[in-house]
Amino acid sequence: MSSKQNFIKTTQRDGVTQQTLYIDAGSAGELAEVLKGKGSKRVLILSNKATLDYRPVEAMIRKYNDTGLRTFIYQRRNIVADSRDIEGALDMYKEYNCDTIVAVGNRHDIYVAKMTAVCATNPGKPASFAGIGNIKYDIKLLACVVVDSTPTSATPECTFFDHYSNSWINCISQIMLPHIVVIDSEMMMRNTETVAFSSLNALCFAIEAYLSPFAAANPEYKANAAVAIYKIIGRLDNLVADKLDPYLQTKVAVGGFYAGLSTIKLGFGYTYFIMHEMQIRYGCEYGVGMGRILVKVLREMLEFAADDMAEISRSQHFCTSSLDTISAAQTFIETVGDIYNKNTPDEVIPNMTPDDRQKIAESVRRVMTDMGYQPRIATDRLTGVLYNL
User: Fold this and answer.
1) How is residue 284 annotated by DSSP?
2) In sequence order, which residues have a C-beta less than 8 Å from that of residue 313 and are 6 or more positions away?
3) Whole-angstrom Cα distance, residue 191 to residue 203?
4) Domains in the chain, please, with CATH?
5) CB-based burial, 359-375: b 16+ in 10 Å, e otherwise
6) 3-class secondary-structure state, position 173
7) pLDDT tens digits for 251-265?
């Protein structure tokens, strides 16, 4: 996903979309009045079959109709975010002259909604916006009702499979940020694997944002990352054990939102881009090997970010406050590894050749440069991260 644009410069150019967050049981249905107040008349609701079959979702749609909104439902057909669904949703959006998109679902539904909104105001195929800062025009009203702890409702990025090139595409731009995010415990999924993956993905985003070289210049976004780490680590085990607890669902989902929020100015880290490179080269699901990659990356970052790691370790009571910085940082890394090992199912990680590892490491360093980073981990050390995952 190499690009000539720079994340810092494009963020300054495009600005940051102001997001409104609603947190309460029943707020997904109450969103109808909010949308109507913003001038919405014709709403495209984008989701997947499993989510659309939920009774709370059916009730939400009825409430929209009762409020006077015209609703048009697009059901995503592919398992992952796919350019065919983006084009299908875009055709429906244009055919019925919609002015608003509401995504109800997981990260794939949100990704499709983001790119549908982008393509509705920017000419070109979805893949033409690949890279950093390649979206020109603002999107129209986009709202997301999340059903798990995904951070994607607040991240300036989108990943989808492009059926024309038969490859995965990654886009990064502040312009695609949703305007409204709803966390409604009545809409939450109860699947253990979904709950765990979305939470671990959000935790990865938050940790890498907290350790970002941009963090010192953006303390408020570093604070968002800290809030996300606190909310997810402190409640993940209890949520996995009791997926029906609305309090825990809401708290961890809010953690996911804050994790996404932290990336708006702090960007993304090595683990994120390594997983995308693996997805592009091997076609594996994003997130495969996440925990093992993150732990290895943290070990390589120890000499640069020991103070920040130690700070998290002490604040989360992973160690005593009197423990020295290096030992506290190492305790943090070990604890993160334990969390991922405990909540990650058995994974089949692609068998990488030495040449593949070298190419992935070089590509990741190029993308980090595009982000505006001065890459801290040398290519040979990154190659070592990918060895024997």
Assistant:
1) P
2) 319, 323, 328, 329, 331, 332, 335
3) 18
4) 7-187 (3.40.50.1970), 192-385 (1.20.1090.10)
5) ebbebbbebbebbbbeb
6) coil
7) 999 999 999 999 999
